[in-house]
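Q: Protein A?
A:
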Amino acid sequence: MASYDDASTSHQSLVPGLLYVIGNNLHYQILRYLTPTSFKVLEQVKIIITAGFMRLLLGTRLRARQWVAAGGSLRTGTRTTLNPLLMLCACV
């Protein structure tokens, strides 16, 4: 088992860590120009875009239930969480 002092482990986590820091800083910059609701909608669109790229680039075929569940993530309003029933359908 490798320890955290291992140089290769440190290097492997460096890039994802830096991307995470950059992403968080961009979130704060974007929130300066958008309302929180608009930001949340744009953030949820990532799920649809990821599903589309999986289909186009990787050739992954998603079932209809998975598309419905991904589309359910765009529901906004006072609740910005995913509908639990749609999430359950995606897992089946």
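Q: Protein B?
A:
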Amino acid sequence: MLRLNLDRLRINRAGFMEELKKRNLGRACIHTAPRPSVLPRHVRVPSEDLPVAYGIHARSVAPIFSKMSGEDVQSVVDAVTL
């Protein structure tokens, strides 16, 4: 899991994902909404009720998939490291 420091970037999370795709790293697993693991999946909580969770979600990216090789992992590390 990567947590983007959006204050230091010139792009948002969607832009970051686009940049990964341009580098052929577009297989990222992205969860559409954060939710505490203690809540059942059918429970919907408004974002204003979970400001910290939604704030983390807005900065989080998981550029991974289940069958990544060591080379795949290194490609992601190289692409996101300054």
